[in-house]
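WARN retry 2 of 3 for item q-0093 after timeout on previous attempt; input resubmitted unchanged.
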Amino acid sequence: MITLVIIPAVAGGSGRAHAAVASGQHPAVTAGKAAEFLEDLAALDIRAGKNGAGRILTDVHRLAVQYRLTAYDAANLELALRRNVALATLDAALLKACKVAGVAVL
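OK item q-0093 returned
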């Protein structure tokens, strides 16, 4: 069971909001599943990763260009790589980048 979630520092509080909105917009996610996800999300210890902001113009930018990702997705990938942790996503481009980069996906 997952009890700790780390989001990129650059996302700040918007990481939770993004996850909440995105969960309800994915075609495979029903309204009931989205509500269940939001309940699960509220129970997690969500923390911002450290040292992320200084990596925007270096590592995050490099990953965004290399894998053709948004800066937000590249920041998540950078954090997963740096912390050696799995990443949870439904985004096709980010899933592909994780596979190529060797990042486990939940």
